[in-house]
Specification:
The structure is a single chain. The chain has helices at about 10-20, 25-40, 45-55, 60-75, 80-90, 95-105, 115-125, 130-145, 150-165, 165-180, 185-200, 200-215. It contains 12 helices and no strands. With about 220 residues, it is an all-alpha fold. The termini are far apart. The protein is elongated, with a radius of gyration of 21 Å. It is about 70% helix and about 0% strand. This is PROP1-like PPR domain-containing protein.
């Protein structure tokens, strides 16, 4: 493009950055962002979000945090997906406190978190084996009027399994019916994992039969 005498604009740079980031080539994506700035082309939200998502996918919480702070410093408006990606990066790295910091940052902004945001936060708690926190965030989601989905419930149930709390896992499975949310194979696998943790073969059999009665095909985990 440059060789042809055409100056790249913010869309051109953002497209290259997104493509590099999507392939997991974070270092190259970062280089293109720096080239964009050096060329006096103002980065847009898409450029930064691409880098933040890339960090989120690989659990690079520090990298995701650094990019969102730079984006905010430039006065670019973050989106709910921006903060959710940071929370997700924290979840993947097992940093619950940092995840909560960014979740609170989102809640205190003018942007409303969605079910994906809350699910990422609950995932962070589940990975840390913190059932109390996972349940608190799920309850907070409901209090704020955000409708749960199978992912948010599976995250809580995963925390139950990790804590070896079968009764809580079964209770959350029942709450899915109350919330009119269909359980999927991931949800049932989480409950079965809780059964295995406490060595309750009879409950595992009942859960397995319930799963089959709902037409859910078991996977290698279940």
């Amino acid at each position: 493009m440059v060789e042809a005498g055409v100056d790249p604009n913010e869309v051109s740079y953002a497209t290259v950055i997104h493509a590099r980031a999507k392939r997991g080539e974070t270092a190259q994506a970062e280089q293109w962002l720096r080239r964009m700035i050096e060329a006096k082309v103002e980065p847009n939200v898409v450029s930064y979000n691409s880098l933040i998502y890339a960090c989120g996918r690989r659990g690079d919480a520090e990298g995701a945090e650094r990019w969102v702070l730079e984006m905010e410093a430039r006065g670019l408006p973050a989106r709910v997906t921006t903060y959710t990606a940071v929370v997700d990066a924290c979840a993947k790295s097992g940093d619950v406190r940092r995840a909560e910091k960014w979740m609170e940052h989102l809640l205190n902004s003018d942007i409303e978190p969605n079910v994906v945001s809350y699910s990422s936060m609950i995932d962070a708690c589940a990975k840390a084996g913190d059932l109390r926190r996972a349940e608190q965030w799920h309850a907070r989601m409901l209090e704020n009027g955000v409708k749960p989905n199978a992912h948010s419930f599976s995250a809580v149930i995963s925390a139950c399994a990790k804590a070896g709390n079968l009764s809580a896992a079964i209770a959350h499975l029942a709450k899915m019916d109350e919330a009119n949310v269909s359980a999927d194979v991931v949800v049932y696998s989480g409950v079965l994992d809780a059964c295995a943790k406490v060595g309750d073969a009879e409950s595992a059999k009942q859960v397995f039969m319930q799963m089959q009665s709902h037409g859910i095909v078991p996977n290698v985990v279940s």
